[in-house]
From TrEMBL:
Species annotation: Nonomuraea soli
Protein name, entry field: Uncharacterized protein
Keywords: Membrane, Transmembrane, Transmembrane helix
Transmembrane segments: 105-125, 132-153, 159-178, 183-202, 208-230, 242-259, 271-289, 316-339, 345-364, 371-388, 400-420
Record carries keyword Membrane: yes
Length: 429
């Protein structure tokens, strides 16, 4: 009998997305709880509506298709390594500039490049045909910022040049990756990596000069490639909606990470190297976020009820988070073996693993435009670290534990926000 009822109501309920709509249609046809019991054997109209909706959903559901292929898996996984390629030149650069100037300059320049790069990415995604204009303006702004940082640190002239080169690489490599040119970036930076490794083997001043010169030429090639690649996208610069909010988010993110590491870049290599695993694993976080978006959308075709979607979505979310944390843990171990492992270094490495898990969730929320929530969560973490540290100075171990607590808070807040978003099925259609 319920089959006949489903056939009768199908034209009205072709777009039904929940059993309540079916219950309303049944009542509009004059069916009440008594008819549902006497004629269809259900306790009430809502129970009958559940069965009719399930039948309609099964008939309307398309055949289950295999999950979409992920042809860019290796490319996305390589992003962390590609961003970290200039790190091979750091020993040679340090020998020429001096670590006391190099590390503070690099920390500040990395922060500025992070913020500028985030703004450039938002502008390109908002209006792709203005990519060349974005690159040109970004390079000018980056050069000004790098020179200001070099003067602020009050280092030698070589530091000014280094800051400009570093921020140029950040901005232009990001543009190549936006245009899916991972292989080109690897080829262009390959000679610089080889030169940097060669200096580690030889260790002479001349080898350091050669490595820095080769690295600079490689970054010049990356810059030229970014300009050539975007040369046909010369539309006037347009400021997309939400750019200011995105700028605030990038600023808070860079501030949270870099302020924790800045005080240890000189004199505490065990702590300074603790974030290497996160840098190497950024491509993994990006790829897992892409996998989650693909998998959670395929779930919609396999379930009938919103509660089922939410339940499957929570499982996928926890699985993705677990994979990210496991991979970052593995990647964080080898760098620690290069120095004497200390309690402070181990805690800082663990904090970066937790922070990487938070970044995975942040990618998902940012893709849904939840930037305000991200800013608030990041602000809450900043209240813990450096907020509490500014109230009363603490020893190094306590400082690293405080940073770990801030990362845990950040992760928990984003996990709650993302879990709640999975109740909104419409956001994934």
């Amino acid at each position: 009998m319920s089959d006949e009822l489903a056939d009768q109501l199908r034209p009205k309920l072709v777009h039904a997305v929940e059993p309540l709509q079916v219950a309303a249609a049944l009542e509009s046809e004059g069916l009440n709880d008594k008819i549902a019991r006497d004629r269809y054997g259900h306790t009430d109209v809502f129970s009958l509506a559940e069965e009719v909706y399930a039948r309609l959903a099964r008939e309307a559901r398309p055949p289950v298709e295999p999950a979409p292929r992920r042809p860019r898996m290796l490319a996305q996984l390589s992003h962390g390594l590609l961003y970290g390629m200039p790190g091979a030149l750091l020993p040679a650069t340090s020998a020429l500039v001096g670590a006391q100037w190099l590390m503070p300059g690099l920390v500040l320049t990395t922060g500025a490049g992070w913020i500028l790069g985030g703004c450039m990415a938002r502008m390109v995604y908002g209006k792709p045909d203005s990519a060349w204009t974005v690159v040109v303006y970004g390079l000018v702004a980056g050069a000004v910022a790098a020179l200001a940082i070099g003067l602020l640190v009050q280092g030698p002239p070589a530091l000014l040049a280094l800051c400009v080169v570093q921020i140029t690489f950040q901005l232009c490599s990001g543009m190549l990756l936006i245009h899916h040119q991972e292989a080109l970036l690897a080829v262009l930076m390959g000679p610089g990596v080889v030169a940097g490794v060669t200096y580690l083997v030889i260790g002479t001043p001349f080898a350091a000069i050669v490595a820095v010169v080769v690295g600079t030429l490689c970054i010049a090639g990356v810059t030229g490639a970014a300009l050539v690649l975007t040369s046909r996208q010369r539309a006037p610069l347009a400021v997309p909606r939400g750019l200011l909010l995105g700028l605030v988010h990038s600023l808070l993110t860079a501030l949270f990470l870099l302020q924790a590491e800045a005080r240890y870049v000189v004199g505490r290599p065990d702590i300074a190297i603790a974030g290497a695993g996160l840098v190497l694993g950024m491509g993994v976080l990006e790829f897992r976020a892409h996998c989650f978006e693909t998998d959670v959308r395929s779930v919609i075709r396999q379930v009938c009820y919103p509660a089922e979607f939410t339940r499957h979505g929570h499982r996928l979310l926890l699985a993705g988070l677990g994979i990210c944390l496991a991979v970052l843990t593995v990647l964080s171990a080898p760098p620690l073996l290069l120095v004497s492992i200390t309690a402070e270094g181990a805690v800082m490495a663990l904090a970066h693993v937790v922070l990487g898990g938070a970044y995975f969730l942040a990618f998902l929320l940012a893709n849904q435009g939840r930037v305000v929530e991200l800013c608030l969560a990041q602000g809450a973490a900043l209240l813990i670290h450096p907020g509490l540290r500014l109230v009363a100075p603490v020893p190094v171990l306590s400082d690293t534990l405080l940073f770990l607590a801030a990362c845990l808070l950040f992760l928990c807040l984003l996990l709650v926000l993302m879990a709640a978003r999975l109740r909104d099925v419409w956001a994934y259609r």
